[in-house]
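Input for the complex:
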Amino acid sequence: MHKFDEKALLKSAEDTLALKPEIEKIVDDICKEGYKNIFLIGVGGTICYAWQMEAIVKAHSTIDLTVVHAADYLSMGYKRLTKDTIVICESASGDTKEIVAAIEKVHSIGAKVIGLCDKPESPVGKSVDYRIGCPDSDGMYKWYVLMCRFMKNNGDFDQYDEFFKDMANLPAACIEVSKACDEKTMEFAKMHADDDVVHYLVGSGNLWGGTYSEAMCLMEEMQWMRTKSITAGDLFHGTIEIIDPDTSMLLFFGEDETRPQMQRVLDFLPRINKNHWVFDTKDYELKGIRPEFRGLVSPIVMWAVNMRLANNLELMRCHPLEVRRYYRKLKY
Amino acid sequence: MHKFDEKALLKSAEDTLALKPEIEKIVDDICKEGYKNIFLIGVGGTICYAWQMEAIVKAHSTIDLTVVHAADYLSMGYKRLTKDTIVICESASGDTKEIVAAIEKVHSIGAKVIGLCDKPESPVGKSVDYRIGCPDSDGMYKWYVLMCRFMKNNGDFDQYDEFFKDMANLPAACIEVSKACDEKTMEFAKMHADDDVVHYLVGSGNLWGGTYSEAMCLMEEMQWMRTKSITAGDLFHGTIEIIDPDTSMLLFFGEDETRPQMQRVLDFLPRINKNHWVFDTKDYELKGIRPEFRGLVSPIVMWAVNMRLANNLELMRCHPLEVRRYYRKLKY
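Predicted:
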């Protein structure tokens, strides 16, 4: 398997899960003091993580949550973001310029910022009120502990403790997912190694963020492949008309409440298209995860699939994931 | 000008604006009784109108507003939608099946529904608690009266009366916009009459809904042209890498607070692309609209441009806007 470092993946996930007591203390302190609402401010990949959490929180919680693009927050201000708001931002590099500027603006109105950032000495690391991170942290688990703790403290997640007991098994289960999906993702990569078609990626619910990210970040930015991501609900209102028999389509099935939306797509699609691939979290065992939690962890499971897809595309297309034409090469 | 019925356009806008006292009474009654939050539930074109309003409300108001796709509401429920929520839905046909089902679900939890629907005898028309509509109403003006009245009653829109004084001049001003943009939109239509490229449509803020709608509804559904719509903020995080010198791009400039995001795109783009078209509300006079209101009405102005684009594409591509391959032809 190309670029598959089992030990590093496990270490990253487990180190991040080990931050749990620290994250819980941050959230508990905030909840004790009280807050009015939560804003997740993101950009690029980090707004995709925020969307995953938004789908989970809005379905299961009464927390007043808003997700906003950093550029929009900077332009428009958002009147409901006040000194009583808790803002959550992520920046892997710690110097994403829209995020740095957003934190400054948030502070100017007196609100506090939780920063997901592995680099304490970076501009983001230094400026946030609470920093969550560790060297090479996993992108997902810190978001889960953080938002699930807010939900638990809000009375929306009675099974919190059971859930995180199972979560301890997820890193190892996802290693098995990576191995199990490698052949299929490689087959896709081989098929599209040299062509120049547009790929349509369809997702729903808590997998929408990952679907958007696979399209925009892994395929467009890192592979220079043309994509359009579309929700299962929207596909039937417009985009469906340009689907031909040969249009390349990828369907991302999870196990949350929106799975029937994806099923509706798959029930119809074979009548008009013979070139769609189904990636489905249900195909994997997930040892140690109770059935009732499978829907909630679908984004983490699918992320393992997305990474195999990206790595196999890199290999078959001879196009390193790190290559950029414009990003951080030209000024904009 | 192809399919340009000046009288019908004016009549539709003016008839819709004439609903103002009726809409105000509905909103005033609701505000007197009190409500906790507002949900806009849409699908396809109607969620695009909702997004336009969301950008305006979130920047200027403290109203607790959530926009949700009808399919997602049906799947996920959304815990913050309670009996104290005001729900707003639109269905032009009055029988959009996701909207009919959503209204039923909303009623089952005891919340009230305002329906934007021209057909009193349709399933939507018959089931909503308050119906707003008239024969052949305009898609935009009813949304504006409705949401601006909620904002005024919430103390967020002191200039409400002045704004609607100017709004009375907008239908005529938009007729001039249609005439003024016809040549440019026709030029675009001629250029792309027979090719088969992907078009990238970029918008921001209160024009994002219209940009998405132009891509998905007018170009994909009604013209079978491939498109991807992308926000100005997101373009720089992923999608930019697949922009070639010849990639077809359409930039939609409005005059709200997010205009600098579009300017950032245009400042950079000529270095890597020679095939982008700028459609800009600033190019039009808008007689009788005070400068401070131009940003707020940008969606209505750009809609006039979008319609000329659609009509001219229809003519040059010999592809009637009404033709569908799948929608309401096959079951899904």
